[in-house]
Amino acid sequence: MEKKLRIKITIAGRVYPLSINNATEEEGMRKAANRINEMVAKFEKNYAVSDKQDVLAMSALQFASQVEIHSLSKENDLKKATEKLNVLSQKLDSHLE
Q1: What is the pLDDT of residues 34-45, one digit of tens each?
Q2: Domain tally for the chain?
Q3: Residue 37 sits in which domain range?
Q4: What does the chain look like in DSSP terms, one character per residue?
């Protein structure tokens, strides 16, 4: 059984202890925490927000929307590629008959 690594991540001034599996996961967690902290700082600088929970919620919404937009874009790209492949397949079928 692999031993879990214990790390501490700081997000918006609060420390969170985490258990992770390996150094790659640690790097990912630290990069994610840094991006969140950058987003929190940006919202605090640009908007009159007095509550950390508000900037954290706004940051969560920003990141979640980026994931959803990327997912929708991938679905659209897949749909277009499938349509093109179907057209090519029909053309090949017609030439082979």
Answers
A1: 999 999 999 999
A2: 1
A3: 5-96
A4: -PPPEEEEEEETTEEEEEEESSHHHHHHHHHHHHHHHHHHHHHHHHS----HHHHHHHHHHHHHHHHHHHHHHHHHHHHHHHHHHHHHHHHHHHHH-
Q: How many CA atoms lie within 13 A of 50 on its CB side?
A: 0
Contact 42, 56 (CB under 8 A): no
Q: What is the mean pLDDT of each run of 10 residues along the chain (97 residues)?
A: 86 94 92 94 88 91 93 89 90 84
**pTM metric for this prediction:** 0.69
State the Cα–Cα distance between residues 10 and 49, nearest whole angstrom: 20
What is the rounded radius of gyration, in angstroms, for the C-alpha atoms of the chain? 22
